[in-house]
Amino acid sequence: MTKIHILGYPRIGAQRELKFALEAYWANKITKQELSEVGSQLRQDNWKNQDQAGLTWVTVGDFAWYDHVLNTSLLVGNTPSRHAAIEDPLERMFAIARGVSSSCCAAGASDMTKWFNTNYHYIVPELSNATEFELQWTQLFDEIEEAQSLGYQVKPVLLGPLSYLYLAKSNDGVNPIDLLAKLAPVYRQIFEKLEALGIEWLQIDEPIASLELEQPWKEAFASFYSQSPATLKLLFTTYFEGIENNIEWIKSLLIDGLHLDLVSNPKQLDSIVEQLPEQWILSAGIINGRNVWKNNLNNSLQLLNHTYEKLKQRLWIGSSCSLLHSPVDLDQESQLDRDVRDTFSFAKQKLNELALLASGLQNIGDSRDQILKQSTALLALRSKRAAINPRVRERSAKLDQHSAQRPESYAKRHAIQQQALNLPLLPTTTIGSFPQTPDIRNARQQWKRGDLSQDGYQDQMEQHIKEVIAFQEEIGLDVLVHGEAERNDMVEYFAQHLQGLAITQYAWVQSYGSRCVKPAIVVGDIYRDKDLSVYWSRYAQSLSTKPVKGMLTGPITMLAWTFPRDDLAAKEVATQFALAISDEVEALQNAGIQIIQVDEPALRELLPLRRSKQDHYLNWAVTAFRLSVAQARSETQIHTHMCYSEFNEIIESIAALDADVITIEASRSKMDILNAFEDFNYPNSIGPGVYDIHSPSVPQANAMSELIEQASRYIPLERLWINPDCGLKTRAWPETKSALKHMVDAAISVRQQQLVTTN
């Protein structure tokens, strides 16, 4: 029988059980044992789903309390020295991820960044010349034994040593490759323990093998994979890109099988099969792990038929990547339009797609007829639900090179805006959101259920906005925000008010730790037929004489953080989002809003992994942003916010956005991210974050003052803004108030020092 498997399954639970358990544990509302029981139940439910669908193995090692890269760090004993004194392994994990501040110790969190071109985040491993590795954390082995005790056949998954080192951060300039000699023996120990547990196949993830690697990394792969375990077989797993450009050196490795992502790059299949060593198996990642559309199984069958005839049982069928990036269970969605719903497939349903496709390949029973019938019905449904809007298509077609340009240069705009806004040196602001309190969430739920009228809901949101404005004025912030009390999510809120998108009830996916997002689904042409945010911004501005930013989400982030349609090019979808946002920008400034922030935290997220494809993407992504703000008058100051953008790689494109002010996350890296600005004369204003909102720790004013002074080495003070790393939605009010007060104090302190120096 053809073997079928997945690369990983969502760990959060169908009802986000992991999120709520983690947050209850962090708040000391449940014990470690109770947290452990939630994790065990989630794993058992996931394994049961895979087993019942007929998968050859259940995948073990994909469960993490925070993220799988951090799991790997603990497994190989790579703990930052500042956290080493924390004896409890679980508490040490959370300290690395979230930071810790207590009477006994204080240690900042490790950096967090995006997992390749996804919206999943990982905690960046830290390396130095002093780093030593040691097999420590037993979670992987414990969970294998847990699954085996339940009678399951197990395929563990482990992040490979080369990808682990490549994704790490060097604290003292050490070359990560030079640490492979220390790390390799620990991986050999892991292999031995897996063999002792009776494991036949190990899925060893090496996603960097799809990148355009420099020669030393290729040689490092050859070094580590020059010897194979005694009995353990290695499935060398790649995803998010093709590997046809790297197969020449990959095929020389001592491995037993190769996994291809045929969703991101189906064209690689034939060339890889022709060069596949005859003893290897080939795992075909044909079911999309990153989107919600049903697979056209007939097309997949046609793609794989020739390969199956050649390889027979050496061909496995799998997901393109981990289903971590998919929602859990479509069966929960009772409120979607039936015709739309029947074109979707979530993680649980994708398991059944795999099983049916494998049966079709082997021509078992009437499986081929079922596949043809299902694919025909799917095409009919997609044709029926395709919502093409002629006005949107015509408007997009009329765009030219001048459509995405503002009328004045930044230098002229800056002078006009300074006169209009009269802001001080080092103006202070926040990124946009303030804590979403239980009162806010309860009111929203009551309103959705019909237990609270529209007027009643509006009154409560206005009261929260009033309190947020009053607090900001009290502590002396220079540019205020309305706090986004009315918004459930920075993307979903706008998706609910735009045409062309479907909103789900439970399509949650993990972003990081306990943070989950519920992407909308693009099902048709996108357009704005009413105001999106004008009422709330106008109300907030009426409460203060200081400028209050209008807050919008940019076109690339709307594209990246929704599930895009699969029948229209991403560039065109981004253009449709941009035109809709452009209409809202014009409405905001006409309502008297002088500063408008159009957030693009996902700009780098969609960057193709291969450098040869990046310029094309960056050109249309930058154009989409510029198009979204082209209606802004010179006196309207445009801000944008970005997360974890690794600016050194795309600094010219960020400058090309031509935002008047960009704000970026910088505090965890101690402003190291600003190294990108050392050799590049960034022309506009910038606000590097001076405190980490992802940690509950409250930084002191002097610590933030030091970061401001460090930032001033890269950015002239007259173009430097002071702000947190990101929005404050997930934080509690006590820490928010203290941290922002310290931030304002820090800005005032540096401002006064500058005045003394100048005089």
Automatic annotation (TrEMBL):
Belongs to the vitamin-B12 independent methionine synthase family. Transmembrane segments: none annotated. Catalyzes the transfer of a methyl group from 5-methyltetrahydrofolate to homocysteine resulting in methionine formation. GO terms for molecular function: 5-methyltetrahydropteroyltriglutamate-homocysteine S-methyltransferase activity; zinc ion binding. Binds 1 zinc ion per subunit. Its EC number is 2.1.1.14. The keyword Zinc applies. This is 5-methyltetrahydropteroyltriglutamate--homocysteine methyltransferase. It holds the Pfam family Meth_synt_2. InterPro entries: Cbl-indep_Met_Synth_N, Cobalamin-indep_Met_synthase, Met_Synth_C/arc, UROD/MetE-like_sf. Gene3D superfamilies: 3.20.20.210.
